[in-house]
Design a protein that fits this description.
This protein has 15 helices and 11 strands. The protein is an alpha/beta fold. It has 2 domains: 182 residues, Glycogen Phosphorylase B (Rossmann fold, 3-Layer(aba) Sandwich), CATH 3.40.50.2000; 153 residues, 3-Layer(aba) Sandwich (Rossmann fold). Helix 1 crosses helix 15 and helix 8 packs parallel to helix 9. The longest helix is centred in the last third of the chain and has 18 residues. It is globular. The mean pLDDT is 94.
Length: 363
């Protein structure tokens, strides 16, 4: 596992530090040589934003957005050409393609022909029929060259198997113990939700919590301006706008809350999410949508609290705010379960190395 001759190249967009960078750092602790290949610069991405570096040109900004959305054009050609050059120079043993939507089938085939073992991972659902087919058209064609496919969710394991790809396993998301940890802070909020807007009714649920409870609510996240209830939410929150928070600020806000909400992405057919680990890591009680998957990770009403519908959620907020000792106990038990089962980035890196060892890679 700590073989110093093992060389891994991680390929992805690197537009957010919680994805490729987390894996890079964790693998670096377990193996001697991890290299990075990012295609963000070829499209002018700026980290953790939907902003493109236009170099002062409106046309260039629109052109980069077009190339990124439809995954076509000279920038995509440059990405794939640069990847092959990187592989030829670095000669990695393993290439880990992290949601590699911008990499061509022929590029992955050439990497394999150069002697690399191919690992493929996608944290989103590439089989979601509600999404345009062009998003994953390259990704799905690269699967045939994979020595192993990692899946974020159990559903996609079945999807891969139906296509004939049996070398696959779950690789869940994780928390970063250097970023997500408990702090001694006063609880400023009764309930917080820190996450993106999705048009699945979560805005209406949050609005009802604000109207039907006396709870002090906190809300942060991206794309909330797309909600039809945005102005009303901002008004009740006494905010001019709802923005995303990251890193230290994110961890602080979770620590300052008695309970933190989790809504699952319906677009991605999620049964758990990264927040399901980040919240218990702060010793904050997780108040989460129910799914079979998440209930297998944290025991109901002992290590986390689950709600079945909006009315159930309101009732549970009322109940637990009047039973603060239970909030503290569940938060503590959730934290202990998290540590016992091992859900941080290093644990996930060990799972990757275990698969690499199974593939009998010559080091």
């Amino acid at each position: 596992m700590s073989d110093k001759n093992l060389k891994i190249l991680i390929v992805g967009s690197w537009v957010s530090p919680i994805y490729e960078q987390n894996l890079y750092d964790a693998l670096s602790e377990l193996s001697a040589h991890v290299e990075a290949f990012s295609w963000a610069k070829y499209l002018g991405f700026k980290t953790c934003s939907n902003i493109y570096d236009s170099q002062g040109s409106f046309f260039l900004s629109i052109w980069n957005r077009f190339q990124n959305k439809f995954i076509t054009g000279p920038a995509i050609y440059k990405i794939n050409k640069a990847l092959i050059k990187k592989v030829q120079q670095e000669k990695p043993d393993i290439i880990f393609f992290y949601r590699a939507t911008h990499i061509w089938q022929g590029s992955v085939k050439e990497c394999k022909n150069l002697g690399c073992k191919i690992l493929i991972y996608n944290n989103d659902d590439p089989f979601n029929i509600s999404l345009p087919k062009y998003i994953y058209r390259h990704y799905l064609k690269t699967l045939q060259y994979a020595d192993w496919i990692f899946s974020y969710r159990a559903k996609n394991i079945k999807d891969y198997q139906q296509l004939g790809y049996k070398n696959s396993s779950i690789l869940r998301s994780s928390y970063n113990k250097k970023i997500n940890f408990p702090m001694s802070n006063e609880k400023k909020y009764d309930v917080v939700f820190i996450g993106h807007f999705e048009n699945d009714g979560r805005d209406k649920i949050l609005l009802n919590i604000m109207k039907k409870t006396k709870a002090n609510i906190g809300l942060w996240g991206q794309n909330w301006e797309n909600s039809s209830l945005y102005d009303e939410l901002c008004s009740l929150l006494n905010k001019k706008e709802i923005k995303g928070v990251f890193g230290d600020k994110y961890n602080l806000l979770l620590n300052q809350s008695k309970m933190a909400l989790v809504f699952f992405s319906k677009i991605n057919n999620d049964g758990y999410t990264r927040r399901c680990f980040e919240i218990p890591a702060t010793k904050t009680m997780m108040l989460c949508e129910y799914s079979d998957e998440i209930s297998s990770l944290f025991e109901a009403d002992k290590e986390a609290v689950y709600f079945q519908n909006p009315e159930d959620l309101i009732e549970k907020i009322h109940y637990y705010l009047s039973h603060p000792d239970e909030i503290a106990l569940i938060a503590q038990k959730g934290y202990e379960r998290l540590l016992r089962d091992g859900h941080d980035t290093t644990d996930r890196a060990k799972e990757v190395i275990q698969i690499i060892n199974q593939l009998s890679i010559k080091k």
